[in-house]
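Email to the structure team, subject: 3-deoxy-D-arabinoheptulosonate-7-phosphate synthase model.

Hi all, the expression group asked for a predicted structure before they design truncation constructs. Nothing fancy, just the tokens so they can compare against earlier work. One-line instruction: predict 3-deoxy-D-arabinoheptulosonate-7-phosphate synthase, return tokens.
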Amino acid sequence: MTNKKILNGEKVIVKIGSRNIGGTNPPIFIAGPCSVESKEQIHEAAFALKEIGVDVLRGGVFKPRTSPYAFQGLGIQGLEYLKEAGEATGLPIVTELMDEGHMEIVGEYADIIQIGSRNMFNYSLLKAIGGLKQPILLKRGMCATIEEWMMAAEYIALHGNKNIILCERGIRSYDTYTRNTLDLAAVPIMQKETGLPIIVDPSHGTGIKELIEPMSKAALACGADGLMIEVHPDPSCALSDGHQSLNFEEYRKIREQL
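Reply from the structure team: attached below.
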């Protein structure tokens, strides 16, 4: 038994398509709807975001929702739509894996596999994805300490996969004004302690679309390696997280400033 960490601060560069993320490489921009709702919706989003300059297309197909009555995603059908949209635009895709039962098919379709906030503590799943080759996007648990987050990444690395991208997405606090408290201090801390690239999700980090622009600027100012932002063709009709999603023009303005 050893306490020596695999992720010890030595820089890890993760390759995504033709892009490298981490170190001195330019920040990567990931965007797309919270959920894949239809073939038409995700294709519209993919082509619009490609034109704006997005590097990776995101979209949820297996949705862990607080309410069992909320939209749970399109599942494998949605995964196929997302993959088709990515291939049509040349964009790599990222989507969330919720359980080991879908690991093979998500691994077959996705360029990046996301482990969401609720599953950061799912250690059996973390061990399993350590055997995959794709980059893993590991979101911070909504109540996780920095040390717990580091250990979750260590589980993945210990089982063979060091291609990990961390994602700060806010943590729960006593304040209820925002959806979460976005912890930007975690960015330089996690870079120093693990050596892994880290992106920031200001959409979930604040839950308020008006805060996405200033928090995106702040994230890049403190050294984040990229941003993941929710963008929907028509947020007012979104089946999940519409209140915190940007439309194409709102995202374009932020992207141009960044």
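The domain at 28-257 is CATH 3.20.20.70 (TIM Barrel). The chain has a mean pLDDT of 96. Ping us if the truncation boundaries need rechecking.
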